[in-house]
Amino acid sequence: MTEHRHCPPAELPLARNRFRVRSLLVGLGFVLMLFLVWLSVRGFTWPATFLKSGAAKQSQTQPAQPLQTGQTTTPGPLALSGSPPAISPELLKSQLTQVLSDIKEANQKKDLPQLLSLYSSNVPQLTQRAQGIAKTWKIYDYPKMEFEIEQIRSLGDHKAKALVTWGVEVKNISTGTTKNFSKTYLINFAKESGQWRVNAIEKIE
Questions:
Q1: Which of 35, 64, 178, 189 suits 118 as a labelling partner, its CA being 20 to 30 A distant?
Q2: How many helices (H) and strands (E) does the chain have?
Q3: How far is CA 14 from CA 5, 6, 11, 26, 78, in A?
């Protein structure tokens, strides 16, 4: 008679528990595999926090690539403005001082073309004034001419005004007598073709 072997009653629950655990693990593994496949199909991108710190720093510190042909960049605020920076007070004073120095030289040399070149073409009755200056030069010399710029105000890139006091020694050519006087003028300047010129003169009492 063939003998049948039976597991002891105490081992049956243990075997059943092991079978259930294995089945559960196999099922979880299968579900996890399906989840990963679904993510790859959907094109899932891992957050940046999962990158290594070294890789993250390298991506942040990479130098800008040179501009290729056909590419354009947006201009900054300065390029958009299109206006040059305002002239400094020191440079403006230096340029206006040069104009006044040239006026002094033209008067002492009695060079009418040089003097007229220092005045704007917009000055009213410029031709008549030039004729009056030419007549005055036939009567007087100017042995001494000094000026002092007391105030300067910029009115933009192409306009300015200055308060100027002239101290002049006038000599009558016929009699040889001299006379000194001092007068203050409010002079308007305009920049034309890159050159500052006198645009208007107002005598200050």
A1: 178
A2: 6, 4
A3: 18, 15, 5, 19, 82
